[in-house]
Design a protein that fits this description.
The chain is an alpha/beta fold. It has 10 helices and 9 strands. Helix 3 links the parallel strand 3 and strand 4. Bound molecules: pantoate. Pantoate (PAF) binds next to strand 2 and helix 6.
Length: about 290
């Protein structure tokens, strides 16, 4: 696996991956990450390897998607360990730009996606999705992959990226497909996240209530129980289990992310964000 830290080097290495000697243009799958890799990320790499000739993974802790008082400085950085994991998974190229390479002096552009970025994490983390959309647009232009792979765990993020790519015509000539990969979970159901490592053992044990209570809430809603009291009961259960607060617990239309109060046959998603021991956990599951 080769590594690029500057755009010039990245472009040369991507060009050489494209021409691998077979006479055909080799395909590239991009796996964008912020590092601190876990099985969830490695699953994205595996899915990309199944679909593409080469996988390019990016590791960049993007400062513009962290708000004031969030964990930008504390966010785990372990480039060597991550690079070794990517190499073992058969990744061809690691793109690990510096902040200066990504945002050179004088950088003034911001991409803001409306509608799907509003509410939920967008309401709790102002500016977060602008930071995500802008950096992902840059990553798409830098690597020009045929496909890009993102975890469904960040369900709203995936919707924002799809909208951005569609609206800015990034889907052609490159990024033909943006693939959402189902959330990878720990044995007790907790969604894998780089932030899980912030949890004390007590909070980690309590955190497993989140997926369990979500599954139960979905079963009740599918059984015909009313949505608002079911969501209120879900919030109460999280607070009783030791969560400090619930940022949101909502049933939403899976494509528009508009909140819904009943299952209508269209795909729906239960979306939750809750805080425990200073760590904000998010999760989502299909309903209906
Ligand atoms: O999901 C993440 O790790 C980040 O938000 C992403 C997509 C790599 C953009 O910085």
């Amino acid at each position: 696996m080769q590594t690029a830290h500057t755009l010039d080097v990245l472009r040369k290495l991507v060009a050489s991956l494209r021409e691998d000697g077979s006479g055909e243009r080799a395909t590239i799958g991009l796996v964008p990450t912020m590092g601190a890799l876990h099985e969830g990320h490695l699953t994205l790499v595996r899915r990309a390897r199944e679909r593409c000739d080469h996988v390019v993974a990016s590791i960049f802790v993007n400062p513009t998607q962290f708000g004031e008082g969030e964990d930008l400085d504390a966010y785990p950085r372990q480039l060597e360990e991550d690079a070794a994991m990517l190499q073992r998974e058969g990744c061809s190229l690691l793109w690990a730009p510096t902040v200066e390479a990504m945002y050179p002096q004088g950088f003034v552009t911001n991409i803001s996606v409306s509608k799907v970025s509003e509410g939920y994490c967008g309401a709790d983390r102002p500016g977060h999705f602008d930071g995500v959309a802008t950096v992902v647009c840059k990553l798409f232009n830098q690597v020009q992959p045929d496909m890009a792979f993102f975890g469904e765990k960040d369900f709203q993020q995936l919707a924002v990226i799809r909208a951005m790519a569609r609206d800015l015509d990034l889907t052609l000539p490159h990024v033909h497909q943006i693939i959402g990969v189902p959330t990878v979970r720990e044995a007790d159901g907790l969604a894998m996240s780089s932030r899980n490592r912030y949890l004390s053992s007590e909070h980690r044990a309590a955190a497993a209530t989140l997926p369990r209570a979500m599954k139960e809430a979905i079963a009740r809603i599918e059984d015909g129980q009313e949505v608002p009291p079911t969501l209120a009961a879900l919030e109460d259960e999280l607070l009783s289990a030791g969560f400090d607060s619930v940022d949101y617990a909502a049933l939403a239309d899976a494509s528009s992310l508009a909140p819904i109060d009943t299952l209508s046959g269209a795909a729906a998603r239960l979306l939750v964000a809750a805080r425990i021991g200073g760590t904000r956990l998010i999760d989502n599951m299909a309903a209906g």
